[in-house]
Design goal:
Length: about 425
């Protein structure tokens, strides 16, 4: 006889529960970010958690393509696949079992949304998306299978004003969240390609070069050289890259100017970055920094122009990243549309705020209304709570416990600052401090 198996009450591996205090911090940060973005003309949209599996499996997602949570076909569609496989006595092809998948980022669903609704959207279209994404990561400290992304994107703008507004809006949001020690690092995928070509790397293996170059700040130049050698790249090209990076590091002139001169980098790319650097530096007014970073790569294969990240002093990881992806809409709709986006690493900034012991500003003052469950009339308790709410309190009603002192201490530990013991008269409500 089968018996019920005890099911763990813990969340699934790589997933998390959030306490009221956690949610309060997350909601506060979301509100600050959203209101800041709206001041720059961005508007919120929402896309589904699940997308067509063929859309997600396209090649623009980089390593995330290996981390898709796939959703099995259901009912007759699944039965058909299994039946056909059984009748042919063949192994079921995994790729045929799923027809949907959980979104691994917000950019791919956004491009689908834009392609589907393009005729009904304003131009330029400036969107905000904040929501959960899912990746089949190996669960470990700091890496989750479900987490929140926080994106702004702009469609239909070719000029650098798109990058400038994205950088401005994100920087202002971070400042309002209490960050003032960050640096914007910026590069351009066209300049990276010119660099790789100048050094003599094979064009078909540029992405391999970029992957190793992106590790420069973590493993140093000698480490990058070692990794490139291990990947089988030509020694002459590797030496040329090393010499170039050393020249950039020791030059008294602008790294961007030196790189543009030495590699004959795309003139429009160089000029565009110079404009972005100049305008953002002026807008920053010393509150944060912006610099050209020749080793910045960004992992997504869909980037076509400027790319950027924000790094916070004292932390090895970036807290925001993005770039231009002008070809992505065209791959879906057949018509290229200029597009650019920036994503705040929401979980990372929440982690930093928590590390700093940050507490969000208080909203309505919280009050506990304690009543006698055996003596007081529920209707009277409800009226008393309503009267207190009209006075501006956030009121939580609760029956009186035997140990009143402990009950009030528990209220204080939950962030409730006031309490009131109901005595049957809504006109006689004595409010006291929980800490008294």
């Amino acid at each position: 006889m089968a018996t019920d198996t005890q099911i763990s009450s813990a969340p699934q591996s790589g997933m998390r529960d959030f306490s009221p205090a956690d949610v309060r911090l997350r909601d506060w940060a979301t509100g600050i970010i959203t209101s800041t973005y709206e001041r720059f003309g961005f508007t919120k949209i929402e896309t589904p958690a699940m997308e067509n599996i063929n859309l997600l499996r396209r090649g623009e997602g980089g390593e995330n393509l290996q981390l898709i949570f796939e959703v099995l076909k259901r009912g007759d569609k699944l039965d058909k696949v299994l039946t056909e496989s059984h009748s042919k006595n063949t192994k079921v092809d995994r790729l045929e079992l799923a027809d949907m998948g959980m979104r691994f980022d917000l950019t791919v669903p956004l491009v689908r949304f834009y392609s589907h609704n393009q005729n009904n959207l304003p131009s330029p279209f400036k969107s905000i998306q904040i929501g959960s994404v899912w990746r089949a990561e190996s669960a470990q400290q700091g890496r989750f299978r479900q987490f929140t992304q926080c994106d702004i994107d702009m469609f239909g703008v070719k000029s650098e004003i798109a990058e400038i507004e994205l950088l401005q809006a994100t920087s202002e949001a971070l400042l309002k969240l209490g960050f003032d020690d960050f640096t914007i690092c910026i590069n351009d995928r066209r300049i990276l390609s010119s660099l790789a070509a100048y050094c003599g790397f094979e064009e078909s293996r540029f992405d391999s070069v970029f992957i190793e170059l992106d590790k420069l700040d973590k493993i140093g130049l000698d480490g990058v050289v070692k990794e490139l050698s291990g990947a089988g790249h030509p020694q002459q090209a590797i030496q040329a890259l090393k010499d170039l990076m050393l020249a950039l590091a020791t030059s008294e002139s602008s790294e961007l100017a030196v790189l543009g001169e030495k590699t004959s980098a795309d003139a429009a790319a160089v000029k565009g970055l110079e404009t972005i650097l100049s305008v953002i530096s002026e807008q920053a007014q010393g509150r944060y920094q912006i610099k050209f970073e020749p080793s910045l790569v960004r992992g997504m294969g869909y980037y076509t122009g400027p790319i950027f990240e924000i790094k916070c002093q004292g932390y090895s990881y970036s807290v925001a990243g993005g770039g231009r992806y002008d070809k992505m809409v065209g791959k879906m709709s057949g018509r290229d549309v200029p597009a650019c986006g920036f994503s705040i690493g929401f979980e990372r900034i929440i982690g930093i705020l928590a590390d700093r012991g940050f507490t969000p500003p208080a909203g309505a003052e919280r009050l506990g209304l304690i009543f006698d469950n055996d003596r007081d009339q529920i209707a009277d308790v409800v009226k008393a709570a309503g009267k207190l709410r009209d006075q501006g309190f956030a009121v939580s009603t609760q029956p009186r416990k035997k140990d009143m002192r402990k009950q009030i201490e528990q209220l204080a530990n939950q962030g409730v600052t006031k309490w009131c013991g109901f005595k049957g008269d809504i006109n006689n409500l004595e409010i006291k401090d929980t800490q008294a």
